[in-house]
Design a protein that fits this description.
Helices cover about 30% and strands about 20% of the residues. It is an alpha/beta fold and about 500 residues long. It has 3 domains: about 80 residues, Roll (Archaeosine Trna-guanine Transglycosylase, Chain: A, domain 4), CATH 2.30.130.110; about 130 residues, Rossmann fold, CATH 3.40.50; about 220 residues, no CATH class.
Length: about 500
Amino acid sequence: MDAVTQPLVIRLHAEDGVLIARQALPPGTPVAPGVHAATRIPPGHKIAVAPHAEGAPIRRYGQIIGFATEAIAPGQWVHTHNMAMGDFARDYAWGVDARPTLPVSGPASFQGIRRADGRVATRNYIGIVTSVNCSAHVAELIAQAFRRNPLTGEDPLAAWPNVDGVVALTHKTGCGMTDGEPLRLLRRTLGGFARHANFAHVIGVGLGCEVNQIGGLLEEQRLSGRLRSMDIQEMGGTRKTVQAGIDFVREVLAEANQVRRVTVPASELCIALQCGGSDGYSGITANPALGAASDLVVQHGGTVILSESPETYGAEHLLTRRAVSQAVGQKLVDVMHWWEAYCAREGAEMNANPSPGNKAGGLTTILEKSLGAMAKAGTTNLVDVVRYAEPVTAKGFVFMDTPGYDPVGATGQVAGGANLLCFTTGRGSVFGCKPTPSLKLATNTPMYQRMEDDMDINCGTILTGEESVQEVGERIFAKMLATASGAQTKSESFDFGASEFAPWVLGATM
């Protein structure tokens, strides 16, 4: 369809009382029979096309996204000034929409790295994980010795072209914490990265006196033989530890370089689904297009991981309908109840998300954001719900409990085994998550053109009518396969991904 013929507004469902502005609408713009914009409506924002009494539910996608805080007439702008959260009953309808996954016509494959244990990698890094913030700088110094010099072009890894890099994953915790769930969660995260298929070898660097002892990490996560460990205090200080780390990397480079990419089925894909810097178009373009690609991954026998529990809140009843069992659906509901209690305990509220940037882009409540965000997971059955950073072993659509903050959520997904990450954004998030490559999907063409150096795929063509959601989904799936085969992402070109390592910190800092 020619972009010129596109209407000025988008109706997402016949029962919706609001439309979405495809572009900025000046006052007086006709948007529906007998309805004109009463004020300027920003692009991506909502305009009422039906009267709403104070307290009446407001629907988008055919679902409740909030309640009118005052009477709203047709033609009025609908946003934070006249709409807010409210309680309403949810029908979990366990599994009523679960259906057998449709087979695909013809297998898909990519060029992956088959490890000795059978797992498939999409990248080949040497990693350095830190037990505590106190060992972060030492880990950075080790990695620095193998980093390309941007001024001279000198590359210490030039002789080992099959090694993607040496990356230090540092964080701000590991001590001053309680020996309970906060420590177990941190160790589960570090263990997931230490075992990740995209690492050929891993060093663990500790200080020596921290709560999160390297020995305890090795034992609890069963990393013996997988992790070369060293404590700064036992090694004799910074210089000796850095030299020992550099020596170890040099020792394993030749062996790590021996990997070869081979043809593997698309069933080996494990995709982390993320969205950040969302706007009013996220739930119309990039998220449903990624959902179409997610369906293709699952239909080929692969796995997709949806996370960000606070950004699923209010829409969880639509996922329980797709659960393969009531037990799986109940695990998701239990996650949401935990978050309600967590927010009450911390004096927070679930509607603190959307962020200011999300609201500027047209998203008013967490209900509205959640309904758009969950579209990333497509339409297949919910087969499992796992804890933060827990290994993902099921094939199909899996939900992981994580915060909504993107770096923390993505860190948990990669710890769970994701070997590729797809990140939709409407405002323009820049992000990477080593050792897993990250693809950026823009929701609208103006932002894509403005930030083309950072965006891998433009989904704004859906908005202009140049492509359908399914067509863009197929394009995303093809990009997934190419990236998993070694094609560099935009974030990798800027060397994103080490600083974004951000384990979820629970409990008090003592």
